[in-house]
Amino acid sequence: MSKKNSEKRRHKRYVVDGIHGNVLYLSNLDILNISIEGAAIETTKRLDVNREYTFKITYKDTILNLRGRVVWALLSYREKKDSEEIIPVYRAGVMFTDTLIEKTNTLLNFIEDNKIKALEKRVGGVRFKIANSRTVKINYPHKYEVKKISLSGMLIETEYPLDLNSHYDIELYLNKNILNVVGRIAHCEKIDSHNVTKYSIGIEFIKVRDNDIKILKDFLTSL
Question: What's the sign of the alpha-carbon dihedral 167, 34, 91, 123?
């Protein structure tokens, strides 16, 4: 970022230490079975039991965002597609925590249009195997460390590059609070740090809830 742009910042930036969070990055998954109550999934990335994740389902002209909590998880192995290579995979059981009727109806329609067969009947309903998992993604967390922060954005370091001008859902941990913001990637620069490749990334806050703004203001005032 140029010196001229730096001088035009709307808010003072503070150097911080020990502040971190997650950039939520869309990743592929396979659905083993699904119902309106939850799903069994398989992914190449480890999922934490009792953690909530966001699942994005593209259905016709709608993007359905569903929250789900991992209730069990285990490590398994399978052959890589188009190869005999054996790779580790993680299987997990997810219980959907969204209860809005509109979301439930959209999910039900998605299952009806994509189901192959019923697998088994449980207390939470019939589980179905579906024909297409490609339209379902999981927001997987990539950790970052905050170097500088203000009311309008922050400078972070992470081991993953992020696409310029793209918008990401971001978790920011402040004083035992989890702030959920939407951020735009303003710049991304590769840096070398102790033989580990990292990236210095500038993020502009695009959307922050009023309550989270207050928490952030209180935190910056305390510095």
Answer: positive
- Spatial distance between the Cα atoms of 45 and 28, rounded to a whole number of angstroms: 10
Report the CATH fold assignment for 30-132. Answer: Thrombin, subunit H (2.40.10)
Domain boundaries, the chain: 3-23+141-221, 30-132
Instruction: Quote the pLDDT of residue 125.
Output: 63
CATH topology (fold) of 3-23+141-221 = Thrombin, subunit H (2.40.10)
- C-alpha torsion angle, residues 52, 57, 63, 35 (rounded to 10): -80
Is-same-fold flag (3-23+141-221; 30-132)?
A: yes
pLDDT (mean) for 188-204: 90
Q: Which of 84-88, 118-122, 195-199 has the lowest mean pLDDT?
A: 118-122
As a residue count, the chain comes to: 223
- What is the SS3 string spanning the chain? CCHHHHHCCCCCCEECCCCEEEEEEEEECEEEEECCCEEEEEECCCCCCCCEEEEEEEECCEEEEEEEEEEEEEEEEEECCCCCCEEEEEEEEEEECCCCHHHHHHHHHHHHHHEEEEEEEECCEEEEEECCCCCEEEEEEEEEEEEEECCCEEEEEECCCCCCCCEEEEEEEECCEEEEEEEEEEEEEEEEECCEEEEEEEEEEEEECHHHHHHHHHHHHCC
